[in-house]
Design a protein that fits this description.
Strand order of the largest sheet: 5-6-7
Number of domains: 2
CATH topology of the largest domain: FAD/NAD(P)-binding domain
Radius of gyration: 24 Å
Order of helices and strands: HEHEEHEEEEHHEE
Distance between the termini: 61 Å
Bound molecules: flavin-adenine dinucleotide
Length: about 220
Amino acid sequence: MAREVDLEAFAAALAAGGVVVDVREPGEYLAGHVPGARLMPLSVPAGRIVLVIPDPALFEVPAWSEVLEKVDARYGTEVRLRSEMTAIDGDARELTVTDHAAGTKETLAYDLLHAVPPQSAPDWVKTGPLADPASPQGFIAADRRTLQHPRHPEVFALGDVANLPTSKTGAAVRKQAPAVAANLLAVMKGAEPTSRYDGYTSCPPVTGGHPAFPGTFRACVTPA
Ligand SMILES: Cc1cc2nc3c(=O)[nH]c(=O)nc-3n(C[C@H](O)[C@H](O)[C@H](O)COP(=O)(O)OP(=O)(O)OC[C@H]3O[C@@H](n4cnc5c(N)ncnc54)[C@H](O)[C@@H]3O)c2cc1C
């Protein structure tokens, strides 16, 4: 049974080192909260959350990574960077996380696991003549601007299967498609492909019940 305290008792407990747990939603928290209060929205299951990602940062764009670090801190999410799940025991509900930077392994128990396999091209693409030898995932080689294949000028690649230095999203495809269509028509008429994809993509991470994080930007990595 929760006990109500008045403001004076609250301030005294806070001054004595008490921890404030704010159970409202992120939008309400952002609108105003007790300094140092830890956000644990009732809509988010209580418990330990561990985020394991192979990258050296939470996001490729440093400014965004900093925002996401704050979001994780707010939720109390433990982050393991440069790490991957390398083994799983479903019966024991345990998994092994390998920290590739430190060369250490850690066993974590779980109740709920959300595992995402590494992205790669389909095998028939990976082993085919269009695959980019520079792409370990076997994506199709393409000029980052014209999207034309370097060895097969009659071929253009767009979407997730293209080896482009930008994040793979539907938003990126939307901007790549007009360039491919124009360039394909040009090449079919014997002309040079002059239409350019500018590297646009959009990755909107949802960080709570309130979409407080603006998601659209020019590119995760903009082609030079
Ligand atoms: C969980 C999730 C959330 C996402 N959210 C967003 C978002 O909010 N905004 C955004 O912009 N992007 C988002 N994306 C990314 C977006 O879905 C992809 O970038 C986009 O779908 C890529 O389109 P594509 O046509 O290149 O590839 P796909 O959509 O993968 O289409 C390829 C198609 O080819 C078919 N295929 C494969 N092999 C063969 C074959 N041999 N013969 C015939 N057909 C074949 C496949 O079945 C598939 O239908 C999200 C992706 C995921 C997984």
